[in-house]
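User: quick one
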Amino acid sequence: MLFKVAMIVEIPATLAPEEAQQLKAKEKAYSQQLQHEGKWRHIWRIAGKYENVSIFDVKDNTALHDILMGLPLYPFMKISIEPLCRHPSSIHEDDK
Amino acid sequence: MLFKVAMIVEIPATLAPEEAQQLKAKEKAYSQQLQHEGKWRHIWRIAGKYENVSIFDVKDNTALHDILMGLPLYPFMKISIEPLCRHPSSIHEDDK
Amino acid sequence: MLFKVAMIVEIPATLAPEEAQQLKAKEKAYSQQLQHEGKWRHIWRIAGKYENVSIFDVKDNTALHDILMGLPLYPFMKISIEPLCRHPSSIHEDDK
Amino acid sequence: MLFKVAMIVEIPATLAPEEAQQLKAKEKAYSQQLQHEGKWRHIWRIAGKYENVSIFDVKDNTALHDILMGLPLYPFMKISIEPLCRHPSSIHEDDK
Amino acid sequence: MLFKVAMIVEIPATLAPEEAQQLKAKEKAYSQQLQHEGKWRHIWRIAGKYENVSIFDVKDNTALHDILMGLPLYPFMKISIEPLCRHPSSIHEDDK
Amino acid sequence: MLFKVAMIVEIPATLAPEEAQQLKAKEKAYSQQLQHEGKWRHIWRIAGKYENVSIFDVKDNTALHDILMGLPLYPFMKISIEPLCRHPSSIHEDDK
Amino acid sequence: MLFKVAMIVEIPATLAPEEAQQLKAKEKAYSQQLQHEGKWRHIWRIAGKYENVSIFDVKDNTALHDILMGLPLYPFMKISIEPLCRHPSSIHEDDK
Amino acid sequence: MLFKVAMIVEIPATLAPEEAQQLKAKEKAYSQQLQHEGKWRHIWRIAGKYENVSIFDVKDNTALHDILMGLPLYPFMKISIEPLCRHPSSIHEDDK
Amino acid sequence: MLFKVAMIVEIPATLAPEEAQQLKAKEKAYSQQLQHEGKWRHIWRIAGKYENVSIFDVKDNTALHDILMGLPLYPFMKISIEPLCRHPSSIHEDDK
Amino acid sequence: MLFKVAMIVEIPATLAPEEAQQLKAKEKAYSQQLQHEGKWRHIWRIAGKYENVSIFDVKDNTALHDILMGLPLYPFMKISIEPLCRHPSSIHEDDK
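Assistant: Done. Structure below.
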């Protein structure tokens, strides 16, 4: 089941740079692990912004919630979610 | 070069149903042609809405403009666009 | 899997009253059928408004989409959706 | 008498973690006590967010006010309230 | 139990003037009847606008809903509602 | 001359609790003095919020400005004002 | 007593041009009469828009209401009002 | 050439009171100097707010920019600007 | 003196196609005449939208107003204006 | 390929003035270097604000992203981006 998730990251200036770097490294590893498992299907950077738009493929709402709550940068994110369906015009078997 | 495009469709009640059907059929053919050409990379339906979120892969801004202007349902759409880049955490070679 | 769905109904003045009445009767029957099936778990009226807030219990996003698209008053509704999870403080076994 | 209450929790980074934990434990106990009393009828988590949507069943506006003011996390919440009525299509005797 | 209700009236240009006049006359009679019964406690005009702000004193949410749904101009109103309580600083015995 | 004034109070966490208490006590005394003088005609609490809605009866705009500037909690308030007139449907001699 | 009033004019395409011209002529005469009486102290055009910003000098809120309700173009205006006071830095005796 | 400028002042609680007083005194002197020069044509207080609405008469956009950048309280202001023209209904020779 | 002007064009479906075509042809000629005169310095299409962003170089606010009011498509445009100055970092002699 | 980029700069009061000065000097040098390379085609100041509107001419979205991420003041900016195309009415060969 697919969800579009938009994440806006706002790391406060009060966070020590080395701590920020550690969190970003953890975030990358966490994201890539989920991409390898097929749960985080796509991730793109919004040009010019510290934001991404992602597609998740999860079992249910709770699985999505647990993944997002586990994001190392979650405390510094604004997240918006839209549940997706297969589009009747889509020719791509995967996009459902 | 990738763009996220969100399309909200609002067909007015004054449009004759058969005309609406024809437009929708043309829209589907137009979309599938562009999907086969690789320019309309993804299209998903937003659950519960007459809206989609799509990923386009085009040569430049003008190519995107021309594709969108050619949409049979364009006069009834609200469109928002965000230019995308490859995300540094992405493991998918295609998502750029 | 639960979703909160808010529906704002705006029937245009141009719709003939008897047609509006027929649609409302169909809407009621459709809603009650889904309530009996356990898919439309709750529906409340927002005081003073032609709006409702509802809880749906469906298999997945597509099931929700199909139910909402089938609403007889769908063409006259503004719909907003939030996917829900069981709350860790909830004592109600059903609210998940 | 029913009210829908949406609560968005924003615990500031300046709050000591152990204090935050204590407040959350108190919040859970407070919520469950009110659920047992039948005043806090439903509570759901919004997927991917530190937010909930709840249904309260109280005597009057003042009873609602007093319950919300007593929330241990109240100083860190944004709250929005909508008074509810029984919906004419509802088949559930309790939803009023 | 008190509620603040704001009503914005937007009578469409397509409504025949005599029909509009009849509705306004009915609205006035309806409002004054409820004022005499003590249910519509205050009504003020917002200066320069076809809007009012009112205070209702009703038994519960459903009573408020039924009163508002009965407004002759209801189909042409945008309504917003806020439940009120007695303010701890108030010296007026009635304002609760 | 009447004005509706809505006040949203947001006391910052950095204000010492005893100082906050003193300000609230001063605020209450200030409000009650103006109520006794007939200038602060009504004050209601918005249920579930640290907000009030009030009706002021003052000589002119400057008198309203001076009263609001004198509020002990003014530095922590967001204020919105709407000038009021007698409503043509009002039966209450005082509501003007 | 001074008020700033912003007026946005939106004459619908369905209004016959000659009727629109008559209304505009009446609007101009009405405005100039009030300017001569000193009640409509200033009127400026917002560059590039069919909008104005005006300063009114009236006895009270009701006088302002009656003047605005009498505007020939009132049914096609969106109006916003802000009550003004003399500014402590002002050197102009008239600006109060 | 005229501009309407709205200024909302938000002095942070972290600014020392004596420093705030000095800035306000400088602001007043700066404003009055420009009023005497005829460049700051009007300034009014918005009732109940630490805001003003002003009319500037300047040579061009750059002159307006330089004046606003020189405001002692500029770092604590939110500013919005609208270019003005003489209104065709205006009878005041100066309002252009 | 420079202004940024954003124009959103919304031609209503009720306008006859040939009339729309005539207006667009007039609009193009009008725009190109002003570009040749140096008053309409730049015009760009927003990708995917029937909108443009333009830079005007005019004598004063009134000259800008008169140009915009003369746009053949003006009745179908939403216009927003921002006065510009030379930027201190600019190396382009013309951009002032 | 052209993009309009709007940048709003908000340097926090907690940044030491000399550090702010250094950042601004770096920003100016960075901007002028890109202007000399032809990638930052235009930059204008919004009158009365610490904001600019700019036109970039870049190879693709990623080139734009990299330039913006390299802005010395980037951490203190709010950025909005619109992809541009040549306008069919434009007579300027460069504006594409």
